[in-house]
Amino acid sequence: MGNKLLITTGYMGSGSSAYTDLLSEYKDLQCNNGSFEYVFLHCPNGVFDLEDKLLIGNNAIRSDEALHSFLSTMKDLYTKKHWWPGNYASNLSPHFYTLACDFVRSLTIIESDSYWYYQQNLSTLKSFFNLLLRVASKAHISPKNAILLNYHPMLLAIPTHEEFYKNAKLFIYACLNEMGLNDHSLLIDQLMLPHNLWRMGNYFNDDTYAIVVDRDPRDVFILNKYYWHPANQAVPFPLDVISFCSYYRAMRESVKPYANNHIIDVHFEDLVYCYSDTLSLLETRIGYKPEDHIMRFDKFDPHVSINNTQLFKNDMYRDEAKYIEENLKEYLYSFPYDKPDHDGLIF
């Protein structure tokens, strides 16, 4: 069996880390940094934004903004040690930013000394000092001589689809190999999001599997409003139940359909109420055997995580739960039985 890439993902607070914990119990499957979320593909100005900018409505000056915005974001991810999704120098590889620069060079046709209006969009203070410089020198300040101008060499790139995906895939796999994919199978949390799984075939080999985790929205709402938000761990869901339902439906309906046998849709609750069947499903789809599960219950225990289900049955949340039941019917989980009384939030 060759090395595999497994990606756990979900719909904000849906419990994908439970599947990360579970799969970490399998033989020869490395999970670098546990549930650390690697966002460099789907974050603003990440690889997917670069794809859209260079392949949809691109032009010379648009490509310059796209490439420099991408590099700026990759540098932030690489250098910022105290930014929770960052510090890639340690969390991914000391070579990460060099690989990002190599990727940009592979797409760049021309590096030009020209500049454009985007670079002349200065802050009020910078514009004032530039004006003073021009008045004092009685001359035009060229971009190379005006240190206050937002100047950088223009990077021009108009790749074909084939060129972009080829070079993006080389960049991604260079990063994955830095993380050890050449030596062992790799498990990464949130490397992709459900909203961009339709792109998966353009970026990954056939030995890649995505596990998409859903969760009953009643519990998601209650956890966010009454547990995570008060603990300053909130996800960006509205705390008003009416707004929550509107936002949740819009979020789920915005997901572009994907058709890929290597994308496995599951529920967080499946690990609790259908543990053995869920393991069998994952093993069959991914290609593991029961004997590969060498650390059973070491990181995920359904008898513990059951405390994090059916929270909506508490009388405190009755009215809000009922509203969600009526307005998000198709996203509810069908629980096979009532859990024991809640005795403490674990997950």
From TrEMBL:
Protein name, as recorded: Sulfotransferase domain-containing protein
